[in-house]
Write a structure and sequence with these properties.
The complex is a heterotrimer of chains A (105), B (551) and C (171).
Chain A (H helix, E strand, L loop, with lengths): L15 E7 L5 E4 L5 E2 L11 H13 L4 E11 L5 E3 L2 H8 L10
Antiparallel strand pairs in A: 1-2, 1-4, 2-3, 4-5
Chain B lengths: L5 H22 L5 H9 L3 E3 L4 E5 L5 E3 H14 L3 E4 L5 E6 L4 H9 L17 E2 L14 H11 L14 E4 L13 E7 L5 E7 L11 E8 L3 H15 L10 H8 L1 H13 L10 H9 L14 H6 L3 H10 E3 L5 E6 L10 E3 H14 L3 E4 L5 E7 L3 H10 L14 E2 L14 H10 L3 H7 L4 E4 L13 E8 L2 E8 L11 E2 L4 E2 L3 H15 L7 H8 L2 H8 L3
Parallel strand pairs in B: 6-7, 7-8, 16-17, 17-18
Antiparallel strand pairs in B: 1-2, 2-5, 3-14, 4-5, 4-13, 8-9, 9-10, 11-12, 12-15, 14-15, 18-19, 19-20, 19-21
Helix pairs in contact in B: 1-2, 1-4, 3-4, 3-12, 6-8, 7-8, 14-16, 16-18
Chain C lengths: L2 E3 L2 E3 L4 E2 L12 E4 H6 L1 H5 L5 E5 L17 E6 L6 H12 L5 E6 L6 H7 L3 E3 L3 H5 L1 H4 L17 H15 L1
Parallel strand pairs in C: 3-4, 4-5, 5-6, 6-7, 7-8
Antiparallel strand pairs in C: 1-2, 1-8
Chain lengths: 105, 551, 171
Amino acid sequence: MTSPLEQKKIRIAGPSVVTANRTWDGVVIYRTAQQDWSADLSDAAIVRTSDEARALLAEAVADDVGAVGAYIAPVEVKDSGKIKPGNLREHIRSEGVTIDLPVPA
Amino acid sequence: MYAYDELDRTLINERVSEFRDQVKRRLSGELTEDEFKMLRLQNGVYLQLHAYMFRVAIPYGTLSSKQLRQLAHVARRYDRGYGHFTTRQNIQFNWIKLAELPDALADLAEVGIHAMQTSGNNTRNVTSDQWAGVAPGEVEDPRIWSELLRQYTTLHPEFSFLPRKFKFAITASDHDRAAIKVHDIGLRLHKNADGETGFEVLVGGGLGRTPFIGKTIKPFVHGHDLLSYVEAILRVYNQYGRRDNIYKARIKILVHELGIEKFAKEVEEEWLQMRDSALAIDDSVIEDIRSRFSYPAYEKLPHMPDELKKAAHDPHFEAWRKNSVAAHKVPGYSIVTLSLKPVGGPPGDATADQMDAIADLADKYSFGEIRVGHEQNLALPHVARRDLPALWKALDNIGVATPNVNLVSDIIACPGLDYCSLANARSIPIAQELTRRFANHDTANLIGRLHINISGCINACGHHHVGHIGILGVEKNGEEFYQITIGGRADEKAEVGTLIGPAVPYGEVADVIEDIVEAYLALRERPDELFIDTVKRLGVEPFRERVYATR
Amino acid sequence: MPLVKHGKITTDTFVPVADDAEIPSDGAILISAARFLDDAEALSRRFGKTGVIWPNNRDVDDLVPYLDRLAVVALAFPSFRDGRAYTQARLLRERHGFRGELRATGQVLRDQFVFMLRAGFDAFEVKKQSDAEAFATTVKHYSVFYQPTGDGRLTALHRRMQLRHSESAGQ
């Protein structure tokens, strides 16, 4: 969970997605294969090589108005094709905090 | 309570309108994120893991009931109904939308609250002792000087783009509740032999990756010279602080690299050229600020009123009174701490409903005033002792009367990986589990004063370095691990804690803490030898042995 | 890059001269600090206005002996986040009495105009055209200032003192 904001070299270890936060409201978003963003992880484009990752990230970063702080995040892809967050940090970003909120949502 | 006048309010409003325009230009694309980021930080807006976080300033930890209600309003209207009080006497909201921030700021401006410089490479909230103005034995109210410094540092044209953040803290008591020794500039207010007010100035304290205890740069700076002297320090830092590496950019690194003597010389040389300038503070200026602070019209009240005598038979009330009520400088009054560390709860959070209820209680029992402490608890600073039983019932009702202040379950924790994009590991669930393990108040009282601090990463926002027990989240192979230190303290005897051994996994932290406490109970000389003193006496070894014997 | 002076976009009459180019015998020029200091006495007395581009990581002390003969001192903001030039500007203006043009160069953005003015800058090589055009309105954003600088503005503290004195005087 070392902050991916400190990513310098782009080298992926497995299937990954590009994720960011939506500029106007901070909601977690994932880059899709349609040059777009979605708040749903299941819509995320999956990259499997470092070149693909670099390209998708560059495209995401170019959308400076719509998204903030884009980076590459690991995912797990189940046999069913379902995409799951690849580490605890991404799990928290996708599912929310691991504790009960003081005021139930 | 400092009363903002039209000038103060105008400045806040001008700032809000400037930020509104900046947000508009960001959302339209006229400003890139690279250009906007520092601007939003200067208004307290962070991008966190899954949302923006908004840090609102509570200057020197003092709030009016009206202001607290407005914080509750912001929590409800723009966030998810709660706020988090921080280790720097600020409040944070975790779910704020950038597009709505200008409105939230405008709402706060209505009651004289702002978020200026709560982040960014500038001078941050000037923190103080949460008992300022009411603690017995205090030299004088340090908040007058905090306010002077707040105004001086707000939107300072020369120092708004420093190498890194810059934090001040002021204390006016022998027992330092403001942790001045771990601040960039720490100020200890005292009087010289002629009875004149001045400050021992410490510089270069700080936590984070490289913790340092601040060093005295000048034992006595006269009150008149405070601003010019501070300006000299800031100017030397602005010019020579490192800008090539953000991990080496704080003033503590500059002081360490130059040595305190050389650094003091640089500051002195600069200061001598500008001390008799427009920054020299007239007594009339100090009086003007002092006059804007209002103090309660205290009554002449008895130390042992009937209400208190009657309530003494209630063991729950007594347990709370002995724990959470402190002596006040005015007879018949007391300082009441409101614990925001309920068993199983996230430390330092308050719901909007709680904030409203506390505001009402402040109106009824504390002359409308609330304080925020860096240990992430609140306080009502002017409570008549005769009102304690009634107040306690009301506080208990809203869940802020857990009698664990300063005890093992009064944990200071950063938000950690549940919220923060810088974190390596979670801190809140660790704190929650610890409060469950040590929920028994008799046990907690048996253990005595014990400060546990938890940070989710090396940035140390939980101040783990200066915890009696410090817990630091690290990452090992994608798993959460925690390094444990003991022997740290943040007060006038400030010290950085010592690592007791290799990091332990998430699931074992609470067990380790229990082992450390058990070791202490077995090793202490007398029941009233505090944990921190046992560690000082025996060192880390006996604790290390016991903790790692079976690990 | 538009130059803003006196609140509006103006033509820059100063020509930057590269270190290896010949210095014209007259006309307004801007040269690097290194070049200037190499031959400071002569250059500071040349016919035509001379301006020096001073780096932000060097003390201004070396320039001080020549200030009254310089038309322009240009200071640098390599990133808008690098605030060293604010200190340099204040020292030049307030401590050393520099009266020529103090020019902000580098990443000069709208959101720093007020800070720069207060620090003593009076000329701005503005990065974006739209920012340069917005200069006059931007600098009116603030009317209250807490701390004194060399800009002569009354601080809030002193305005309050004045108000109190006039109130009590009026009684």
